[in-house]
Amino acid sequence: MVDVSGARRRLALAHVASRVEAGPPVPPSTSVTVHFHPDRLVAGRPLLEVLIEENLYRSQFVTGTSNGGFDPAPGGRRRAWESRMFGGAYDDGPASERPIYGSLNHRLEPAGGSVRFGSSHLVLRRDVLSRTTFCYPDSVHEPTAFGTGERMPLVETALGHHDVDVLDDYIEAHVHGPLRLDTDVEALVLDPSFRGTAVDAIARRAPVPVRWHHGFELASSRFDRCADYRGPHIADLAHAVARDGRLTARIVGQAANTGEHDDQHVTQLWHCVARFGHDWSDRPGAATSPTEGRIGRG
């Protein structure tokens, strides 16, 4: 039997490789991280529970959900930019074969390479790099700079951009082929606001080690920064859903799961918690003003 899915994957990898300038391999100290919100409900069940049960991380083309730009429909923007980036390799293939999106954690952040897309993340094993491609900036901006595991000129490029907002400062990664927890993941890293919760209990069933990062907590005294960053309506939402004068990943997730708030607004609320609920001031080369670096997705 002809491995059609493998053929599409090889075409995509070869197409990206043909567009990569000379560069060193991905630094051994870095890893690819795939972000998500573990507590978001999927058919009434926490996403992390579904992920562990299926032992498979699925793309938005399969799940119909996303923490970033969501447009998986035929004729949508994501299909268009994937076609351009991957040489049309996946144009006629099933949704299940399209790549998984993540980021290269080039700044070695404990919370992962692109916290805007989720409070928690999977750290991928090194051998997954052989089927991973990269671009900078985010694919929504139609980038012309690409990388592979063997040739990665993008780290130097990204580190050279000093006016990029913290949440936009990532090198996008695309994992081609299935992403399994038991064989492709090194660790599951969670936000500490989930300690002692149902998410914590579910995580203990994962076939990989569980770690905790520094966490994000935004006090009500800083909610006004949300207005400048994502709009006055997001500051209002912050006040409406806060508990004990604060916001955490868990509190934002609880607000999302009520179904009472616009999904995009909840996403933007998480952006504010991630941006202002942690001290990024000692992060070298990253923009710190809430009005800087507006190159990323809203």
Automatic annotation (TrEMBL):
Name of protein: DUF3626 domain-containing protein
Domain of life assignment: Bacteria
Organism: Rhodococcoides corynebacterioides
Record-linked InterPro entries: DUF3626 (IPR022074)
